[in-house]
Every structure is written in C-alpha cells, then in structure tokens.
C-alpha cells in the first residue's frame, strides 16, 4: 500500500511535517540518496511501468520509455550533476554605505508539498516535479491520476519500496481524495491538468496562502510559412501531434497557413501518417488509445469541423481514434473552441504572418507556440509580438527535453515553471541574508 489506508490526509501531512521539522530532508546527502533511489525505481521497474502505461493508454514500449521513463531518468541525472552547485549561496553586492557587510541568497526548502499529476503522462508528470521537490529538500505527498489506474497502482506500490516513507507519501483516489488533500495546509501545490480544476486548486490554496504552480494546456498553434519544406513539416507535425494519440499538453493543436500552402500540406500530412503508422494505424504498435469513452465521445463530436483529409474513423469499444487531419476549418468551428487533446489536426487558413499573429493574439495565451519558417524576420516577429509559455521553431515539442529551459505556461496556460534548475527554484524559497560586521 502507498500508506496506511486508515491514515487521513491530515495525519499524512502531520507525519511528513514532523519529518521536515526534524531536519531529516534538509541534508544534501539525503536529497541525493532519494534521487538515486528514484532513478533505481525507474531503471529496475521500467518494464512494470511500461506495461501499466500500455494498459491505461495503449502506449508502445518505445514511446513509454522515450517520453516517460527515460525522460525522468535524464531529469534526475541532470539534477544530480548540478545540485551541489545550484545550492551554493549566491553573493549579492552591498552598497558602500552599509560597509563592512556581505550579502547573499540561499535556497530554503519550503516544507511539505503536494504534487497532483494528470493521466496523459502519468509517470513523467508525477515524478519530474517530485524530483524537484526532493532536490529542494522537501517532503512530498504525491497524487497520481485515477484516470490512469494501472499506472497509479504501480506507482503507489513502487514508490514506498524505494523512497523514504516518512518523507514521501502516495495518495490514490479520485475527486473526494483530492478534495480532502486540498483542504490541508501545504507549503506548495504543484498541479498539472486543465484550467477548470486549476481554478479549484487555486481557490483551495488561497485558504492557506499556499503558493501554487499550475501546469495547464491550451491550444498550441503552429504557423507554417510559405516556402518551407513541407515534407519535413508534415513528418515533424505527425510525430508530435499524434504521439500518445494526441493527448499531450504541448501537442500542436492547429495549423495556421496560407491557402496554397494548406492545400499542398494536406497531401504531405496524409503521406506522413501512412509512413509513420501504416495503412491501418489501429494495428500500429506505437499508436496509442484514447484514455476513456468520455474523451472518445468528446473527440468524435469534433470530427465534423472540417473536410477530412485522412482519418476520421474510430472504434469506441477499443478507444481507437485514427490520426485525423481536417482541412478548411473555420475559426469558430467546434474543434477550435477548446483544447483538442486528441489525434485531430485542423488546418486553418490565414492570408499570411500578419493575420496569423492577430489570430494567436486574439485567443488565450498558449502553452507553446510553434512555427516552421526559414525567415529570421518571421522568427523575430513571432517572439516579439506573441505571448506563450514557450516558442519553438521548426520542431514542435522538443523544448521540453532541454533541462536548462524552463517549462511552464502563461495566462490561461498556467503559472510558474519547472525542469532542471527551475524545479529547484519552484520548490524553494530564495532567502536574502545580510551580515553587517561592525
């Protein structure tokens, strides 16, 4: 069991807080030991986790390792390599009038933190924040997603076998359990999911003035400039849009391009889908499934939003929805009114860059913005004239894999960020220290 089932959320937090208050999680040696133990879990139990991901999401083994297990191992390795340096006090200059004095900043652990994970990458999006929380010297309550039950069970069983159970607790369950957890006083809450629940988390946190990181989603646009190599564009869109059957918070949500490029891109996208998944993606080893029937029904309702270029078929019983490309999609079509979070890629036609920028600016700030272009002017304008969590040119999604880049949203797509050093900052308080001598 992840914890004594008779233990209430209040008792769990009290127990973990006693560990923190005793100073047990503060030493660098403890933090390193926990990170190494988590790495051992991922390397020794990788097949167990991959099997659970297969059961929950139809994830192929290679994708499970690439996007979840190995991804988190790399995050741990990067943190272990740099942690001692990151924790060194940072000197700050002191005005002459205070001389003799010295000043610096130190990173303090926060205390007991809550990490609430979503179902789409249920290993990575639980454990990558936990890496940062442990590296910062905190105790952690980890809440895996009940919508990925096999993975939740596996993590609840494995984490206590490897980590310090007086400092890390796993709480499984659905809305009642999460609600009970949110009623407790934590020192930080890290939530990945949708904006609706994000608001609930923020309201609950306000009761205790608890700081919150919200990793949300949104409609991440792709601008395809005239004159780009469309075979490359199509291959890279297909590999990132249809990964995990489109259930990725930073997946390309829709494409903006001019009518002529859109026509040419249609054919290239259909070819790229065939090349990657074969004539029948339902039989492809590495093509996933929709998480449940409710999401399948929601996505099926979006299929009439444009002319079908490829895909458009599904099997509710098997939770299979084919990789789908829709052309000539109107800006107010149903598929454009919400984050798709599934394997449907709409092509929306604009006159050019000016109209594309206006289109993006007129909507909620996305978690990511992508563009395929060879033009430095286009790059500079998109960087300067749009707001998004991150912007990536000529290869969607890969910014997540760079540990030295912060990952997070802005506006409706979230607040706060993490990965690498930014995780340490998120789960720490940077404390000012001034010592005047004399």
Automatic annotation (TrEMBL):
Q: Keyword check for Cell division, yes or no.
A: no
Superkingdom of the organism of origin: Bacteria
A Pfam short name: Aldedh
Please give the CDD domains that the UniProt record associates with this protein: ALDH_F3-13-14_CALDH-like
Query: Key word Nucleus present in the record?
Result: no
Please name the InterPro entries in this protein's record: Ald_DH/histidinol_DH, Ald_DH_C, Ald_DH_CS_CYS, Ald_DH_CS_GLU, Ald_DH_N, Aldehyde_DH_dom, Aldehyde_DH_NAD(P)
Example GO biological process:
aldehyde metabolic process
Which UniProt key words apply to this protein?
NAD, Oxidoreductase
* Gene Ontology cellular-component annotations: cytoplasm
Identify the catalytic residues.
Answer: 215, 249
Where's the Aldehyde dehydrogenase domain?
12-433
GO MF terms on file? aldehyde dehydrogenase (NAD+) activity
Task: Give the UniProt family note.
Answer: Belongs to the aldehyde dehydrogenase family.
Name the UniProt record assigns to this protein: Aldehyde dehydrogenase
Q: Which organism is it from?
A: Streptantibioticus silvisoli
